[in-house]
Amino acid sequence: MPEIHTTRVSAWRWAWTQTVRDLRGGSLRLMLLAVMLAVAALSAVAFFADRIEQGLHRDAAQLLGGDVVVVGDQPLPESFERAAAASQLNTAKAAIFQSMARSPDERGGESKLVSVKAVSEHYPLKGRLRIGVLDAQGGLAQVHDAEPGGPPAGQVWVDAGLLVALDLRVGDAIWLGEASFKVAAVIATEPDRGAGFTSFAPRVMIRQSDLAATQLIQPASRVTYRFYAAAAGPQKAEQMRVERFTQVSESLAESVRGIRVETLEQGRPEMRTTLDRAALFLRLVALLAALMSAVAVAMVSRDFAQRRLDDCALLRVMGVSQSVMARTYLLEFLLVGVLASALGLLVGWGFHLVFVSMLAELVGVSLPPAGWQPVALGMGVGVLLTLGFGLPPVLQLAKVPPLRVLRRDLGGLRPLSGGVAALGSVALLGLLMAVARDIKLGGIALGGFVAAVALFAVLAMLMVLAWRAFIRRMGARVPTWLALASRQLTAQPGQTVVQVCALGVGLLALMLLVLIRTDLVDSWRAATPADAPDRFVINILPDQVEPFQRALKQAGVAQYDWYPMVRARLVAVNGKPVKAKDYPEERAQRLVEREFNMSYAAQPPAHNPVVAGQWVPNEAHAFSVEQGLATTLGLQRGDRLLFDMAGVSYEGRITTLRKVDWSSMRVNFFVMAPVAEMPQWPATYITAFRMPTGQKLDRALVQQFPNVTVVDVSATLRQIQDVLEQVIAAVEFLFVFTLAAGLMVIMAGLMSSRERRARDWAILRALGATQSMLARVQRVELLLTGALAGALAASAALTIGWVLATRVFEFEWHAPLWWPLAGALIGALLSWLAGWWSLRGVLQRSVTANLRQVD
Prior knowledge:
This protein is of the alpha+beta class. The protein is built from 23 helices and 22 strands.
C-alpha cells in the first residue's frame, strides 16, 4: 500500500499509484480487457462505416457524371440550361435510346439491339470515361482515359460484346440507322452507365452532332434525355451554387411530368439488400459486444469494491476523508477507462483494416481517411462503460465506516449506487442507439436484453426456490454430493440469481448471434443459389416462342423462366390521375414517373410467395402487385389501377400482394395479371436460364433470332457470390468480439464468487469433506447453474431472434424449437469449462490458506 499522509493526500498521485498496482496485481485487468473489447468492436465498425460514407459522398458526382443530373423522357426545357448558367455551372447533355446496329453487308449484315448514347462535347463532367482495344484473346488492352466529348465525329465507341456478336473489329464500319460509322475504340468504363435491362444492351456511343444523320429519333421514339451540371471545383462557394441549382431544378421538375432530378443510389441494386443486412448485422454484433462488456465491467467492479472494503476502512482510521477517497477512485477509473479506450481504438483500427480489405471493393470507391467521429465514439463508450457501470459500487468505498476495522459486518456494499448508474446507463444507451443507426435494431436489441435480464431474475429465483423445496422433500434419499451442491445454490438465492443472470446474458448474446448468423447466411445463399440463371434474353417476339424454346431444349436447357413482358406507365389510381407531386417520398415520385415491367400468368411465380389475398387463375381485370411497391405508393387490395401500354389502356383491381426478392437473379415483375392469355397487351417475351456447361449458346441464339438481346450475367453472378463470401467472412470475423465478450461475462460471474466459494469449501474441508467430493460438488453446481442459464438464454434468443429476423433483417425465421435443450447443454458445458478455469487451484489450497485468503 502506498504511503498515506493524514494531513494531505494527492488524489492524482494516489490514483496513479493505485491504478498501476491494481493493473499489475490483476484486479482491474478483466475490466480493462472488457472495455477494450467493447471499444474495439464499436470502433472497428465505426471506422469502416465512416470511411465508406465519406468515399461514397466524395465520389457520388463521379458515379453520376456530374454534380446534378436532370433526367427526362422528353427533350428538357431550356429553363434548366438557364438555371445552370445563372449558377455558373458547367453543363453537358446526353440522349439514350435503343435501336438496331448492323454490320456492313460485306461482313454479313447481321443486326443487334443496342443502347445508343449521343453525348455532347463536355461529357462527362465528372468521373472517368475509359476506352481501349481488344487483344488477340478478346480482352481489353491499351486502356486509357478518353478526352471529354465522346468519340470524334463519324466514329463510335462500343462495348466489347457488340463486336463479338457482329463479328467486327476495331476499325470496321457499323451502321446506325441511315449513317455509317467507324468503330474507333472499345468502352472500358462509363461513369453513369446505371443498371436495368435498358443498360444491359451493348452500348454504342456517338457524338451528339452525328445524331441527326442517323434519323433514328422519330416522334414516337422512346428517348431518355440527361442534362448534367457540375461545379468546377470543391470549394464551398461552388458547392453552394450546386445546391441552389438543385433546388431550382427540383422546383422546375415538379411542373413537368416525366422529369426528375437524379441522385446517387448507393450500392448495386442486386447487392444492396445483402450489404444493408450485413451492415445491420455488424452493428448488432458491436452492440452485443458493448452490452456484454458493460455487464462484465459491472461485475468486475463490484468484486473489486468488495475486496477493498477492509483497506478503505483502515484508510478512514488513518484520517483519509470521504471526498479524497471518492475523488481518488473516480480518477483511477477514469485513467483505466481512457487507457482501455485508447487500446480499444488501436485494436479497432487494426481490425477495421481487415473489413476494408474484405468489403471496400464492393462499393467501388477509394476510401478516404476516417474522421474524428469514430475516435470520439470509442473514447466516449469506453469512459462511460468504466464510469457508468464500474464506478457506482466503488464509490461506496468512500462511505465505509472506520468501525469496520473491528466489526467486519459493517459497511457492506449496497445493491447499487442508483444515481450514477442511471446516468451512465442512459448515456451509454444513447451512444449505442447512435451506433445502431436504426431505431428498430437498437430498440429490439437493447430492450430485448433488458427484458431478458428481468425475466431471467424472476424465473431463476422461482426455480431456485422450487429446487430447494424439492431437495427438502427428498430428504435423506438425496446423495451427499447433490445435497451439498443444492445447498450451495439455494443457501444464498440472491447470489445464485445474479450468477444465473450473468451467465444467461453472456449465453444469450452468443446464441442469438449464432441463430441469426445461420439464418442470415442461409437466406443470402438461397437468394443466389449455385444453379441461378446466368443468362437473360429479352425482346423475344410472339411468333418466335416455339422455335426459341426448341432451340433451348436442343442445347440442353431443361429449366428456364419464361414470361411475357410489357412496358407500361401507371396513369391513374381509383380514377385519380397519378402525379409525382402527390407523393412526398422521392422513391415514390421516381416510381410513378417511370415505366413498369408487367407480365401475366395463370399461376403465381414459384419464387414470388403471395402474402395477401388469394391468386385466382384467369380472374379478369385483376392485378397482383409487389408488396414493396404497394407500400411505397400507398396501394391496397381493392384499389383500381389504370396503365398505359404504348397507347393501349388497361384497368384492373389489386387482388393480391406478392413478396419479391429483387436480388434473386430471377425474372421478377412489379405488377402481374393472373391470366394465361392477354392478347390485347403489346408484349414480347423474356426468359432466364443457366448456360449448360461447355455450351456457347449466345452467338447461336443471336444469329437465329437477330432481334433478341442476350444478357450474360455470369460475371455479375460470380461477383454476387464473391460478395456473399466476403460479407459472410466479415460477419464471422466480428463475431469473435462478441464471443470473447460473452465468455468474459461468464468468467467474471464465476470469478466474482471465487472467494465466497473458497470460504465455503474451506469450512466443508474442515468438517471432513474430501477433496474429490468437493470437486464433484463444484462440477454439479456449475453444470446446474449453466444448464439453467443456457435454457433461459436459448428461449430468450429464440424470441429476440424472431423479432429481429422478421422486423429488421426481413428474412424467414427457421430456428429449431429444440434450441432450449441445446442451450441447456451448451450452457452447462461452457459454465463447467469457465468455472474450471476461474476456480482452478481453490480446491488444492489448504484449509488454513483458504481461510486466511478470505480473511
